[in-house]
Design goal:
By secondary structure, this protein is mainly β. It has one domain (about 75-350): Glycosyl hydrolase domain, family 43 (Tachylectin-2, Chain A, 5 Propeller), CATH 2.115.10. The chain is about 5% helix and about 45% strand. It is built from one helix and 24 strands. It has one helix spanning about 175-190, and strands at about 10-20, 25-35, 45-55, 60-65, 80-85, 90-100, 105, 105-115, 120, 145, 145-155, 160-165, 205-215, 220-225, 235-245, 245-255, 270-275, 285, 290-295, 300-305, 310-315, 325-330, 330-335, 340-345. Strands 15, 16, 17, 18 and 19 form a five-stranded antiparallel β-sheet that branches. Strands 20, 21, 22, 23 and 24 form a five-stranded antiparallel β-sheet that branches. Strand 8 (about 105-115) and strand 9 form a beta hairpin. The model is unreliable at about 195-200 (pLDDT under 50).
Length: about 350
């Protein structure tokens, strides 16, 4: 069992995560890497860990369920964020992966399980790649392609994946200019909370949520973006939640990924937009789009438990932890109504309010 603050396997960092409720228990799947690494290097040693719980508070470790493939395979560098959905009697797992020698090009693969304990990778991976008609793809000499964090749901009887992506740049954009923009983004990210430089220019604000659909989980049709507000450079860990006859799109972003023209909302953490029905315009919740700012609220997920809605996030820092925390936090109560979403982050979580 885990100790405060939150959960991580012994000797490991834990960060981006997703949840599955099955068999009367909650299954937590999360990225993990050895704690002996520098925190910024954890991304390139990431695998997927598994834990189970009856209450979202106390987790029992179940080991590693997905790791990088053998050298030469499409996913031989590391595994990044995904999601798992029960569908047609099995558990379908879309996950992001990187390949050695291919820079930051991200592609999405499929693994399937009958019991949430053993996942088998599909032999024809990757099954889902960015479509250059709408999304930025790699260029010669510029191996960077944002196509990650798939969130699975079912819409109209088809599997639907929401994906963190970036709109294709204007056709006249040179590789040099695009490379310089991405270098500036890396500098902003490295600065973290100290960053005061926000995105600007015609290449900024191209972060979007892509959509792909499938009737069999293997063959996917990539569509134009579901969400592209022109205000974020990148949106991570999306989740689509439906309540009160409206749709809520939750995601996380970094301060340095907000456009300079929108400085009042330049906060690292959970953001969300909402709409009353499909095809209607998206509007920022809380008027600003900011749900929970700060390092205690990244990669936030909404989950129903005991008749209530709670939010879980992973922690970059915590009062009890020295340096980078890298743990999954405790569930926090949520207040949700049309156009409003509040997460009450405090030391007294839903674990002590039952």
């Amino acid at each position: 069992m885990s100790a405060s603050p939150g959960y991580a396997p012994p000797g490991m960092f834990a960060w981006d995560f997703w949840l599955v409720e099955a068999g009367g228990r909650f299954h937590l799947f999360h990225l993990q890497a050895p704690r002996k690494l520098h925190p910024e290097l954890r991304h390139f040693r990431a695998s997927v860990g598994h834990a189970v719980s009856d209450d979202l508070c106390h987790w029992q470790q179940r080991g590693t369920v997905l790791a990088a493939g053998p050298r030469g395979s499409w996913d031989d560098r590391c595994i990044w964020t995904g999601s798992i959905l029960p569908w047609r009697g099995r558990f379908w797992f879309l996950y992001t992966a990187l390949q050695r020698g291919h820079g930051l090009v991200q592609r999405i693969g499929l693994a399937v399980s009958d019991d949430l304990e053993r996942f088998v990778k599909h032999p024809h991976n990757p099954v889902l790649c960015a479509d250059p008609r709408w999304y930025q793809t790699r260029r010669p000499g510029l191996p960077w392609e944002d196509w990650r964090d798939p969130w699975l749901c079912v819409q109209g009887g088809r599997l639907t994946a929401l994906i963190s992506a970036r709109l294709a740049p204007p056709k006249q954009t040179s590789t040099l200019r695009l490379g310089l923009e991405q270098l500036r983004e890396l500098v902003r990210l490295a600065a973290g909370p100290r960053c005061t430089s926000l995105g600007s220019g015609h290449l900024a604000g191209r972060g979007c949520i892509a959509v792909a659909r499938s009737t069999d989980g293997v063959s996917w049709q990539v569509e134009e973006p579901m969400f592209a507000p022109g205000r974020y450079d990148m949106l991570e860990c999306p989740q689509l939640y439906t309540a009160h006859d409206h749709e809520l799109l939750l995601f996380s972003t970094q301060r340095g990924w907000l456009r300079r023209s929108w400085p009042q909302c330049a906060q690292t953490g959970a953001h969300a937009w909402w709409r009353e029905a499909e095809r209607r315009p998206w509007r920022p919740v809380n008027q600003s789009g900011v749900v929970a700012a700060g390092k205690a609220a990244y990669g936030t997920r909404l989950q129903r438990y005991a008749g209530r809605l709670v939010a879980l996030s992973w922690l970059q820092t915590a009062p009890e932890a020295a340096g980078f925390c890298g743990r999954i936090g405790l569930p926090q109560p949520v207040q949700l109504r049309p156009g409003r979403l509040a997460v009450a982050h405090s030391s007294a979580s839903s674990c002590t309010r039952r």
